[in-house]
Amino acid sequence: MRYHVHRMRAAVDKFVFERFPDYRRGLVVGRGVTNALADPDLEERLRAAERGVVELLGGEDWRAHPRLAAWLAAFGQVGIPAGSKPPSVAALVKRVSKGASLPFINQLVALMNITSLENLLPCGGDDLHSVGPEIVLRAAAGTESYQPLGKPEEVEHPDPGELTLVDTLNGVVLCRCWCWRNSDVTKLTGDTTAVALNVDVMAPAVPFEEGEEITRRLADDILRHCGGEVGWQMLGREHPEMLFEL
Predict the structure, then answer these.
(1) What is the pLDDT of residues 15-38, one digit of tens each?
(2) Do 173 and 165 form a contact (C-beta atoms < 8 A)?
(3) What is the C-alpha separation between 244 and 241, in angstroms, rounded?
(4) Which residue ranges form the domains of the chain, and what is each CATH number?
(5) Facing residues of 165 across strands?
C-alpha cells in the first residue's frame, strides 16, 4: 500500500533515552529522490568500504572492536539476543570479514551499507510512501505486525517490550530489535522517491560530533547521487523528534 501523507513525525521514545542517555539517532530525509539500480562510482566505494573493514580488523575478532562491542552490549542490556538477532552492522561486518561482497541493490541501499562499513555503526532506511504519518522507535506492545525483509508472505509479531521502529497508525513494524532487520513493507527499491535513513550513534564509542558529521555526510551523499531535497537532524534526549513535509 502506498501512502501520500504530507506531514510526518519521526521520533525516539523517551524509554530509549532513559536506558541509553548517550544514544543519538541521526535522521536523514530525502524527498523527490531517484534511486538508480546502477552507479559505478558508488559501487566502487562500497567495495573500498569492504576492503577497509578487512584491513581494519586484520583478522582479529570483530566483536572486540569498541564500536561493535558497544552495540553487542547495548543489545544485551535490553534483552535482544545478539547471537541470533545481531545489530545490522555486526551482520555486515561478519559477512565482509569472511571475504564476501555485498550485492549492489540500488543507490540508497548502497549508501546505507557504505555508511555502516565506513563508520562501523548501524544504518537502516525506509520508503516513506509505504508508512503512515508517524514512525517511532519504541517498546513494542507485541500486537504489531512485521513482514520480514525478503519474506513478505510471512507475518510475525515482536515480543512485548521489544525495541522496534513502528508505523504507529497502522501498527506495522519497520525494523525489529532496534536495528536488526528492516521490513519488506518499507524496503528501498528503484521506485522509492521519499526515504528516511537512520544513523544509530552510541557514545562514547562514536563521539556525538562524529555522529553528526557522519549523518551530514550521508545527507550530502544522497543529494549528490539521488538528487531531490534532503534534510537531516540528530534525535536525542532534548530533541527526540523530527517533523517534516513530504
Answers:
(1) 999 999 999 999 999 999 999 989
(2) yes
(3) 10
(4) 7-245 (3.50.40.10)
(5) 137, 175
